[in-house]
Amino acid sequence: MVTALDCNAPLDFSQAILGFIGDIVPTTGRCFYRVDDRMQVFDHHLFNLAQEWLTAYQDHYCEFDPLHPSRCADKEAKIAILNDSMTSDRHTRNYMTSFLMPQETPYQLEVYLRHDRRIVAGLSLVRGVDMGPFSLTERALLERMVPFAEFCLDRILGHPAPSVPDEIGLTEREREIVQLVCAGLSNKEICRRLGIELPTVKTHLSRIFGKAGVQTRTALVHRLYRGN
To answer: Is the keyword Transcription regulation in the record (predicted)?
Structure first.
């Protein structure tokens, strides 16, 4: 069963956690996101990162990200740090040299927030060369913060986000919009949340409706999340 979230609750939490993290550990930029039960990432909130950063990540580089939640789902770690030992993998090298380094943020740390041992949200923290890599002390501070953040997130969301069936064939951006629709956000609220124009949202929704074989938002929720 799908229950609509208070559309401001995840936004308020993301702003609070992004600010809190910044008080603990200095970063060049940071991003909060949610994760559905198929380990698809959606509902991104950025701090000191350009929308172009997120667009490039979603359109191409997410599939190469070694710290993506889908690649850490079976691990118990609360924190993961991108380091030189991972560069033996060519996909990771491509991610670092083509995505992180051109944006002058070669250092990345990921925080995973769980519900019943499943990752339901996370934070990406990135740093420039001037700040240097994340230290073991900073990692320990963030690990101590995770249980409290998980407790707060559970109280706000109430349950993990449902997933979008793979057979629908939605893009990463379309999946994100579907999740926001099912959370009860209007088209204008989706515009503000994602930093895109209203006609763009409407175009995405038209394509989503076509792929799902529906004509309304209500039918979309029923089709995707109730299996009919």
So the answer is: yes
Render pLDDT for 193-208 as a digit per residue (tens, 0 to 9).
Answer: 888 899 999 999 999 9
Q: At what angle do helices 187-194 and 198-212 cross, to 10 degrees?
A: 110
- Taking CA atoms, 17 is separated from 14, 29, 31, 32, 165, in Å, by 5, 13, 10, 8, 30
Q: Which domains does the chain have, with CATH numbers?
A: 9-157 (3.30.450.40), 166-225 (1.10.10.10)
Helix (H, G, I), strand (E, B) or coil at 129: coil
Place of tokens 């990432």: 41
Q: List, in order, residues 6 or more apart from 105 with CB less than 8 Å away.
A: 28, 29, 126, 127, 128
Q: Are 200 and 63 in contact (CB under 8 A)?
A: no
Q: Are strands 79-81 and 41-47 parallel, antiparallel or unpaired?
A: unpaired
| C-alpha distances out from residue 227 to 2, 74, 182, 197, Å | 12, 26, 14, 31
**Reduced to 3 states, what is the DSSP secondary structure of residue 109?**
strand
Unique residue bearing structure tokens 């938002």: 217
Distance CA 214, CA 118 (A): 31
Mean pLDDT confidence for 25-46: 91
CA-CA-CA-CA dihedral for 16, 21, 24, 26, to nearest 10: -130
Instruction: State the pTM of this model.
Output: 0.71
